[in-house]
Amino acid sequence: MDSALPARDLEVVAFDLDNTLYDEGGYYEAAFATLVPELGERSGRAPAAILERLRRIIAEKGKHYHYLFTDVLAEIGLDPKADLAWVLDRFRSVETPLEPFPGVVELLADLRARYRLGLITSGMQRIQQNKLRLLGLAPHFEEIVFSSTLPENKPGQMPFRVLLERCGVEPQRAAYVGDNPLFDFRGPRQLGMMTVRVHNPELDGHEFPDDDDAEWKVERIADVRAIFLR
Prior knowledge:
Blueprint: E1 12-15, H1 25-43, H2 47-61, H3 68-75, H4 80-92, H5 104-112, E2 116-121, H6 125-135, E3 143-146, H7 158-167, E4 174-178, H8 186-191, E5 194-198, E6 216-218, H9 225-228
Parallel strand pairs: 1-2, 1-4, 2-3, 4-5, 5-6
Helix pairs in contact: 1-2, 1-4, 3-4
């Protein structure tokens, strides 16, 4: 982390959700715990083999691969057209509590004493709302923007403009904290917001254009404290 951080008169600090405030893999594993036994029963395939295949696809293509369940349904002999709806319903309806990264709850509570907090998260709104419920984090945020519901999703500017408008602040008085340069930083940087990237090990080895990356980088989300609570 660069020690020569800019002196800004910030009012709003906003966050990404997945892999910034918690490990998104926990949600997938919780969903698989419900889904895999039923997929095994309906298909006659070994649940362990189905689970291994789901994990392998995620490892190869990432958590944002849109055809994860379509591919697996076809591979195990089920009809994606007939079965995808109930699979997605299970995925949206996880009930297993999730844990934020260490220090997140304390960090958000301390930040709220000085700043107004926002959240901008992509993904289907129902799923993201369920994640927030399972994490217990929603009460910390004054404004929550589900960017998938807008005409333009992250990394475009619109979700960030919406947050700024709702909060009534100029971009120069707001910061955004995320983990993924593919989705998180281009829009806010174009608007003039401060940007901070939390290290995501899944992105190690990837190179990103400077314009898509954050101005400042930290190793863990708890390290954000040193930036905003000095």
